Amino acid sequence: MSAASASAPAAGRASAAAPPAAAAVNLTSVFLRLKLSLIRNGLKGSSKRKAAYFTSLALSLAVACLAMVGLAVLHGNAHAGTVVVLLAAILALGWTFMPLFFPSGDETLDPSRLVMLPLRPRPLVRALLASSLVGIGPLFTVCLAVGSVVAVARGAAGIVAAVVAAPLLVLGCVTLARSVATANVRLLTSRKGRDLALLSGLLIAIGAQVANFASQRLFESGGLARLEPAEAVVRWLPPATAVGMVDSASKGSYGTAAGQLAVTVLALVLLLRFWERSLTALMVTPDGSTIAAAKPSGKRESEGGAGAWAFLPAGRTGAVMQRALRYVVRDPKTKSAWVTALAVGAIVPVFNALQGTGSMYLACFGAGMLGMQMYNQFGQDTSAFWMVAQTISTPREAFEELRARAYALALVTVPYTVVLTAVTAALLEDWAALPAGLGVGLALLGSMLCTGALASARFPYSIPTDGAFKNVAPGQGGLAWAGIFGGMLVSALICSPVIALTVFLNVTDQQSLTWIVLPLGAAWGTFAAWAGLRLAAPTVARTLPEILLAVSKG
Description:
It is globular, with a radius of gyration of 26 Å. The relative contact order is 0.10. The protein is mainly alpha-helical. Helix content is 74%, strand content 0%. It has 23 helices and no strands. It folds into two domains: 3-14 and 42-289, no CATH class; 309-551, no CATH class.
């Protein structure tokens, strides 16, 4: 928000002389220009960053348009109202929590940056709300809102209600996200808040899987008609009431539609009021969330710490491995990413096995989730990477650095993959498929170590240190997603020979030979990881200043 320090004081001085309405409009225009400047400045200096951003924008628009068309196709369907009302509720729930738990790259979610500026809360709420409507997320929401109201709008009354409902739904979602973020900003920017990410990641992982299995059971036993009781309740919960209003007006229930409109508007007004009060409290209350009384420390870390790391190799390799593993234990964001990957990687195969719909090869999901931790290795160091950069001057030194980081990752992921595959085999009572499942998992893990090293060298991005759930610096979100998803696709191609061999042996009823997939998969994964490290090392040594600049941006 560096641009705010130059623009907002001027807006504050102008508000003292101008009428309140004119000052609010002026402040709103300043924040709109500020948001556009943040997006534009985040794309400067890197053609890769621009390409990644516009690619992610194009993909988001494509998905949004397809979703909008799909919802519009439901027009006239007997269950269209049920689908779009529940979708609106899920959309609102996502807006409430996802900006906090997932990388949004939006610095404006933290209003504590503005506490020293002479700004009044009410005009500031208007300005922040207007700037929040700029971005890929709001555009995606607009498309879903339009598709939802089109799906249920019928007749003149339904069309009029749809014109009102779509903006109310978008405003309700954005206001809900802003008010929750403002009310919890002190917690989210404290050490306790960063540790809270650990729990939030687990809750989201478990919740997603519960929703997945619930949807499977739903379509197996009764279809969408079973959701109608839940929809009858949700259509009175704002902002889903906006879509429910369109459905009610289209059916001729004008009294019900008027009531839902009143509930929607009242909830929006209350949210804005709550947001304003939270913003006022934030600007006038001292921050004591990170102040703690000094307590005498217990054992010094050095009294037993050396023994815990004695099994690591000596020299640079051991030092780098120890540093990487300490990040997992101590850094809240790294810890959150690891625990979420461990939890999700185990939940998918285990839950499916317990449901009777599992497969041995779902255990590979755990290897894939942990393999993603190899991406953006240098960004995990944040601004401290400059100290690491001082020790890298040749491709050989870069290779040793990357290799040690891969060793630290493999130290956890390889035993985890073995145990998870064995547990899946036990739950499925299919021990004959264990060697093939483990071989494919090890091949996938090695392939992701390969692409992770290459992505770390070619697509580094910064992980900001000032936000609990902000994992990508503004302007680098597209770069991060492009590197991750591109790497995942390439990883699938790299390990495709092992997958093809497994499929061939199973299709041709040669299960007795599937044991050869285990040694071949382990060897293939090892070779892929080594090749990726070798290919990435010269790039790291050559582009070290660019990497340092990219990871220090936040």
